[in-house]
Write a structure and sequence with these properties.
Blueprint (H helix, E strand, L loop, with lengths): L2 H11 L3 H9 L7 H17 L6 H16 L6 E3 L7 H15 L12 H10 L5 H26 L10 E3 L4 H16 L3
Antiparallel strand pairs: 1-2
Helix pairs in contact: 1-3, 4-5, 5-6, 6-7
């Protein structure tokens, strides 16, 4: 059995949903072309056939709720753009859920590993309405832009002690509320 075969066997038989979420982001970028192709093919087969779709909704939701509790750095009146409800990780988990739930029907969703092109793909195959996909793309890009600016400020010493992803909550209230509503529709209202 080759390493790729063993990897695929593990992914099919023993992997947890969070491992499939991580695999959704994986892509070969260097090394032997045959090995890259073998990995890419194994990844596609696993994500089309081995995802636990019967528990996917609850698995993704529970993992994300746990992350919110354990990883947020925000205090009252603040917003952790990455980890709080309505932030970047919620958008990423929504995209991962939708792609994993639909990849067995529309394997072209696995072509790209980034959120923006996956949102485009989800709209193209009809999983998301194009307006919603575009809104989520814009929100994601907006959040990422703020994070990049915060990171640069932290590197320049202008944000000492504030963390590089925590901001005042008020300016983000509307975007957060909409992401939270999409989350609720996807994970709570459907149950």
């Amino acid at each position: 059995m080759t390493g790729i075969d063993a990897f695929e066997l593990y992914q099919r038989q023993d992997a947890w949903t969070w491992e499939h979420q991580a695999l959704l982001r994986a892509r070969p970028v260097a090394g032997d072309a045959d090995l890259r192709d073998a990995f890419a093919a194994a990844r596609r087969r696993v994500l089309c056939a081995a995802v636990h779709r019967d528990t996917l909704r609850s698995d993704v939701s529970e993992m994300r709720l746990r992350m919110r509790r354990e990883l947020s750095k925000a205090r009252a009146g603040q917003f952790d753009i990455k980890q709080d409800a309505g932030g970047i990780a919620d958008i990423e988990f929504l995209v991962q859920y939708w792609v994993l739930a639909a990849a067995h029907v529309d394997p072209e969703l696995l072509t790209y590993t980034d959120n923006i092109r996956q949102l485009e793909g989800l709209a193209a195959v009809g999983v998301l309405e194009p307006k919603r996909a575009q809104w989520l793309t814009d929100a994601y890009i907006g959040y990422r832009t703020v994070l990049h600016h915060l990171s640069l400020e932290a590197q320049g010493g202008r944000r000492e002690g504030q963390g590089d992803r925590v901001v005042g909550a008020a300016p983000y209230a509307e975007t957060r509320a909409q992401v939270i509503e999409i989350w609720r529709e996807t994970f709570e209202a459907a149950q």
